[in-house]
Amino acid sequence: MVEAMSQLQEEKSQLQEELVVLRERLALHDSDQHATSTQLQNQVENLKEKLISQAQEVSRLRSELGGTDLEKHRDRLMVENERLRQELQELRAQPAAPCPGCEHSQESTQLRDKLSQLQLEVAENKGMLSELNLEVQQKTDRLAEVELRLKDCLAEKAQEEERLSRRLRDSHETIASLRAQSPPVKYVIKTVEVESSKTKQALSESQARNQHLQEQVAMQRQVLKEMEQQLHSSHQLTAQLRAQIAMYEAELERAHGQMLEEMQSLEEDKNRAIEEAFARAQVEMKAVHENLAGVRTNLLTLQPALRTLTNDYNGLKRQVRGFPMLLQEALRSVKAEIGQAIEEVNNNNQELLRKYRRELQLRKKCHNELVRLKGNIRVIARVRPVTKEDGEGPEATNAVTFDPDDDSIIHLLHKGKPVSFELDKVFSPGASQQDVFQEVQALITSCIDGFNVCIFAYGQTGAGKTYTMEGTPENPGINQRALQLLFSEVQEKASDWQYTITVSAAEIYNEVLRDLLGREPQEKLEIRLCPDGSGQLYVPGLTEFQVQSVEDINKVFEFGHTNRTTEFTNLNEHSSRSHALLIVTVRGVDCSTGLRTIGKLNLVDLAGSERVGKSGAEGHRLREAQHINKSLSALGDVIAALRSRQGHVPFRNSKLTYLLQDSLSGDSKTLMVVQVSPVEKNASETLYSLKFAERVRSVELGPGSRRTELGSWSSQEHLEWEPACQTPQPSARAHSAPTSGTSSRPGSIRRKLQPSGRSRPVPV
Ligand code: ADP
Ligand code: MG
């Protein structure tokens, strides 16, 4: 028993020891558990912190290098891309002129630099991303390690629990066997029971602790699960980020591709432009080379010429050296020769001047003689064509015919009888203005030599006086042609003579002289003797215009016309009742001799010569007729007196003759153009006009053949000759039968028109 007891005791102590060991081990296990849990907690904390920092890092990366930066990058690239595209378009739009290649290459290097910069940045970003990935991988590895260790710990703990529970079961079994033993043993059992309750308590405590540990492990598991979830979400985030990065990379790649394409096309453009420029340059170069070849050949051909030129030049140089001496010598001899020549020329000049003056005098004399032979007073007739105004019927039939062999004869059929007249010249209706002018132009040029000339247009109204003198703008008459001729003649002589041509225009109506170019055309002008005692006449206040061109003449004529038109309502009628005078004065100075000449050309469109007195006109019409008759008969008187070389010429009997006194007397020349209407109804007026013309012409035909028919003036009433006012010379009064055969009618009408007796002519 004792043995059993000791055995039990031993067992008990053994058990106690084992319990102590168990306790110790439990404590160890506890502390171990605690340490593991703290370690795990720390690890979890660490992981949490790392996760937070990782998240922060990710967001930082995102903000710094991530999406935003890449987006910015992408935007920047897109902007850059757009700019490059525009530049490319501009480049394409530029003409294919020689491309500034350097600019292209600069741009391309810039673009290349930018691209490499961008590539660097991308590589940096990639590096950072891979670092981040590595870090995430490391953290994942560590997490797996921690998980593994946690699993080991849990397995160890389970084994320990198993072992403890097994031991506890063994103890229970031992206790139960002990209880089934004898009383001493009971005691022991009791003790053991007591001891066993303690053990039980310790066991329950350890169980409770175990429970607590299990709870903690469950909690740890929970935390681990959460961490796993966090890790998972972190993985997802990382995957998302990777996807974004891949997307950005793809975009970057695309932009890079685009940029490369753009660069490629730019490069192509540049190459094309360079090629074109190169081709052009080659063509130009070729042309230049060809030119150069031409120039070279020219140069080769020029070289011999140059050599000869150089030789010539050297020769000339040598000559030039000796030239001053030669020149001086030559100059001396030339001077002597020139002096001699000048003397000779001077002598010759003097001789020539003398001869020239003599010739001039001779020419004037000859001209005078010629005109005198022709007759100082020449009479020509001009028959106008039949016009619409002549009407139709027997009255409008032609009454005038011509001699085909003699252009000085005109035949008129008057009241069924043919009457013939001989004048200096007769112009048929077919004659042009130029034909008529040719006949008078010798007279006009004599005006330049200092002669006074009068050209009268005489005839009934409507016979063509104004047409012959003024003409039409398209076909001008004597007035304008005369001035044109004067201009051209004066210009021809311009080297020796200096001429001035002045023009005045006047009108005589009812014996009142008016200035047609004056500011006051109504003003009456008077004819006065020059106060210098020269006996010359002048008209104070008569406007004189200097003319130098046809334009000037036209202006003067226009001005005269305007004055006349504003003055009179019926100009046609008025002009047929008044005498219109154009007075052209030509003053010349001989540049070499200083000789002065003055010639006057009077172009007179006379008032209508028709006999109005017959129709029994009254009032102002009668007064007009009287004045016209008076002035025309005065003109006839003056011409007759001049032709018959009478001592007294009755110039003062009318304003017209008085005004023209200078131009009618002396060696002046007069031309009378008798205008004739060809129609039957005007035959009697034509007859009178032609009679007047023939008589004027026949007054003087040169000294030996002077024909005087002054007695026949009476055939035209207003030119009736009144012996009382003249001192007729017998020779000048010798009658010769007029060709017309018309009977003379004594001056009854003249007396009727000028009843109060004409004022006696005052000698000039
Ligand atoms: P006058 O001045 O004598 O009264 P005009 O000169 O006014 O006469 O002439 C009268 C008309 O006859 C005008 O219409 C004019 O144009 C015309 N006439 C006169 N002579 C000619 C001619 N030679 N050729 C053509 N028409 C003429
Ligand atoms: Mg007229």
Explain how this protein is built.
- With 764 residues, the protein is α/β, with parallel strands linked by helices.
- Among the domains are: 258-374; 377-567 and 574-698, Kinesin, CATH 3.40.850.10.
- It is 62% helix and 11% strand.
- It has 15 helices and 15 strands.
- It has helices at 2-64, 67-93, 101-179, 183-321, 323-374, 433-446, 465-469, 478-492, 550-567, 571-576, 619-643, 655-659, 661-664, 683-698, 748-753, and strands at 377-383, 400-402, 409-414, 417-422, 425-427, 453-458, 497-509, 512-515, 524-525, 528-529, 537-538, 545-546, 579-590, 596-605, 669-676.
- Strands 1, 5, 6, 7, 8, 9, 12, 13, 14 and 15 form a 10-stranded mixed β-sheet that branches.
- Strand 7 and strand 8 (512-515) form a beta hairpin.
- Helix 3 (101-179) packs antiparallel against helix 4 (183-321).
- The radius of gyration is 75 Å and the shape is elongated.
- The structure holds adenosine-5'-diphosphate (ADP) and magnesium ion.
- It is found in: Cell junction, Adherens junction; Cytoplasm, Cytoskeleton, Microtubule organizing center, Centrosome; Cytoplasmic vesicle membrane.
- Residues 704-764 are annotated as: Disordered.
- It holds the Pfam family Kinesin.
- One of its GO terms (cellular component) is kinesin complex.
